[in-house]
Amino acid sequence: xxxxxxxxxxxxxxxxxxxxxxxxxxxxxxxxxxxxxxxxxxxxxxxxxxxxxxxxxxxxxxxxxxxxxxxxxxxxxxxxxxxxxxxxxxxxxxxxxxxxxxxxxxxxxxxxxxxxxxxxxxxxxxxxxxxxxxxxxxxxxxxxxxxxxxxxxxxxxxxxxxxxxxxxxxxxxxxxxxxxxxxxxxxxxxxxxxxxxxxxxxxxxxxxxxxxxxxxxxxxxxxxxxxxxxxxxxxxxxxxxxxxxxxxxxxxxxxxxxxxxxxxxxxxxxxxxxxxxxxxxxxxxxxxxxxxxxxxxxxxxxxxxxxxxxxxxxxxxxxxxxxxxxxxxxxxxxxxxxxxxxxxxxxxxxxxxxxxxxxxxxxxxxxxxxxxxxxxxxxxxxxxxxxxxxxxxxx
Length: 395
Description:
This protein is of the alpha/beta class and 395 residues long. It contains 18 helices and 11 strands. 38% of the residues lie in helices and 14% in strands.
């Protein structure tokens, strides 16, 4: 059985959903080789600021692509597809991943049946917007809109809003991560590869556990409620004398503890003692809480509520989150060997042995076609071959 650091992945990837997936896999030490068209490349390379003063290395691209190698390859040409076959065979590729539209699978020679003939135990993952039978384009906000996530986000009397992070993209990446780990385990047991089709729409809808059950089983309308909670109160943002806090009372015991504090004793009335009563009078209750919290600083309230184990937090901007001690000790880094630019990367959901062994440092996001020579040399191409392939527009 291979260790994770012996796994090789070829990824015909662009945008966010597959690049974030392979970024997560790079955190385990897997060899990630991203494939891009030699002319067009990944459009995300051109998004954001040009901080390195060079083409195709803008800031948006830097966020999800550390720890990878980059090849250019024109799969529209027969010789490009022949090179792909050689890469898979001679690099002993374990996993092939793509977020190309399904109509391009056979045309580019990347469909599962074709790659399975090259390497019988390959694990193949195709990420699509709406399934392998659909060629509908799918950007994250479109999926938020169609999956119901957008209807659940925003003020009750306001417009639907997008979520602050691209959950359909990154949530699908996390689901794909789990499916690939399961496929690797099954292959270790059986010696057989597999095909995985994962639709971003299905991934997005799967997060709607409570809304779907409440709607489909009990005919309850679930929609956006701003900062409040559908089933618990008080759960909301409250103004303080110097900012805001978010307070979340999850049960009647916590409410009793809260109203045991001197500033909140006036709220200890029979109608509020059970969650049902607090939910029924949520607007009135929140006005009363705001009248109290407005007299205290955020820090004072946090000290007060933390002392009785009632969940509370100040509402931190990202700049403060980065400095949080719990975040700071887990941040990742990548340093450009060319310019010396140091990029701070988001921490992993779980610190991997690979990251620990490398002091949380990853290789810098790869330049366009940066690893053409080193990778193609591994499959027997010499300098003359590379020049010819470049002149023909194959790489």
